[in-house]
Design goal:
Length: 724
Amino acid sequence: MPETGARVQVLAPFPVGRAYDYRLPEGMTAAPGDYVRVPLGKKETAGVVWGHGGDEALDPGKVKAVLQKYDCPPMPEVHRKFIEWVARYTMADLGTVLKMSLSVPDALQPQKTAQAYTLPEKMPEKLSSHRMKVLDFLFDGVPYRAAEIAKAVGCSTMMIRAMADAGQLRAVPVTTPAPCAIKAVPENTLTFSDSQQQAADALREQVAAKKYGVTLLDGVTGSGKTEVYFEAVAETLKQGRQVLILLPEISLSAQFLERFERRFGVPPAIWHSEVSPAQRRAAWAGVAAGETKVVVGAGSALFLPLADLGLIIVDEEHDASYKQEEGVMYHARDMAVVRAHLGGIASVLVSATPSLESMNNVREGKYDYLHLSARHAGAKLPEMHAINLKMTPPARGQFIAPLLQQALRETFEAQEQSLLFLNRRGYAPLRLCRTCGYRFQCPSCAAWLVEHRYHTKMQCHHCGYTQPVPDICPECGAEESLTACGPGVERIQEEVQALLPEARTLILASDVVTSAKAINDAVRQIERHQVDIIIGTQIVAKGHHFPSLTCVGVVDADLGLSGGDLRAGERTFQLLHQVAGRAGRGEKPGRVYVQTYMPEQTVMQALIANDRDMFLAAETQERERAGMPPFGRLAAMIVAGSDELKLDLFCRKLAQGAPRYDDIRILGPAPAPLAFLRGKHRRRFLIKAGREVALQKFLAEWLKAVKVPSAVQLKIDIDPQSFF
Ligand code: ADP
Ligand code: ZN
């Protein structure tokens, strides 16, 4: 361990590419991984000792001293390696990646204790009945805070303090215990089917082997995948090691947390953007100390410095939201596999509609594969129907075809629930003037404004710009000439209300139910059958289990297929397959109606036939032919600026300066699909290469010689998932 006066390198959570030298002051020792406080420019910051000091050429007088070493467990070596790996791969600054791990600097400080109260050493005599009630409440000796006692007993906190002053209560300091500090692991109480048992055994063996491995756990919704991977969780807990379960943020529902608690007796620590600062602090400190055993979180939970991680689960592994589109642009599923590899531990990818990438890794023997074929307790897959909108369209001005209307009516009369799925928020995607053809466009994006009646405004879904809905056309001044074009969920609700006035409807869309709590409330309402017809965007596709839901209608199945996205077909299949899986999860069988103008498309054919393998085979063949991922590699470079001329000039220079290699193609510069976003013009290069090419090396070589003007932003996206 470097001694006093020695130098250490400290990495700070700022956009810096490397760690810098600092001096250890008198009496301080520190080793790599230790958290320290250092001066940085005019500020002070928490950082991590990254290595022993190296730069001998540095003037010793210029090397600043470490200010403080925090008294908390060091960041594990494997976690530091992980940070370095992510930075290298995504071409982000090392310090920027560290920042994701140092997201709760507060947690480095010793936990503040709170004042709590318990029974006195000697029972007081002669107490008022009010005060007696307080002692009754505290009879088992567990200390409570004044506010908790006051609430339970119905007295003031002042009285509690007065009792302590009078020796009728004893004040004791307490700290919040680490969340999910599981000590004993309860046994599974379910009777598994044969295929569930086999899968659970295989996963348990993986964990017991204590070495790197990736297993793809594939099975239709409701086949028991969660119960099965809980067995791997249990095995890891028995080893005394920690588990990380990743879920798309949106599915971090109360339903999941309750199930976890039912299985393991305590709730898991949770980690996502809505978690309170206090919970964050407790989770960070708990996992760093190794006391918190299970974290369930969004992709960002990968950056928690877990002391002894033994297993990573990535549920809904195909979900597009695992790719971060802001800041460090990493793919959480892919980085989870990297983390498992670095740590030599097991990982499980879980999905009812696995990504083509993961299926291909199975095919190539890189991942193990487990399949749960049947739904638990024999619940049947729903009956699938296509509604060809060219042959049997809805009535003019409507969006629900007669066949689907009929199904909604029957379902309502049978006192069962229906779900109408349309992946578009608001009332109408476009508003135009019937007289002059004027369309409302966002002033800062190349996009139409979406009309929202619920919030009575028009909104840009790309930058959030809003304006009121006008009565007259701003172009030609015509009155009552503005008309809504196309459907959003709000307009579908209106149509359903006209069709079945008695039915209770509910919209589930991210701008109407805006918090995790609101989503949970809505889910409860549906579970209690206080809603007959749900109209929802993609937030309804996720893991919820509604036993009385027997009819699903997809209003516009073609919606996701437009645009040049590489994965448009795959995403559409996954999304609609998941939505369809909401039907008939209980005792009663379900049916699904898919409205489409393209029933002959492979995606629709495969969906209707419930034939995922057919879809995957066709899509794999297509990607292989085109040399697209996973058979080739892609990187995107988005260049943006408000001055279009200067931007194009820079892009031309950039293109000219590109190094040339036979196995790397540079496409562009081309206007990005959203060529104008938030007031900035955007150009895109797409770099396409063979599978074995080190794209990062190529990009670094290219950009080394380039000076990016300050008015231009350049962003690199390795393995781009969205092409906007
Ligand atoms: P998936 O994760 O594949 O969607 P789940 O694990 O959520 O499936 O299982 C669906 C439902 O069936 C859950 O309510 C679960 O508790 C229940 N279930 C699964 N397997 C069994 C079993 N062997 N015995 C009893 N209930 C089960
Ligand atoms: Zn906009």
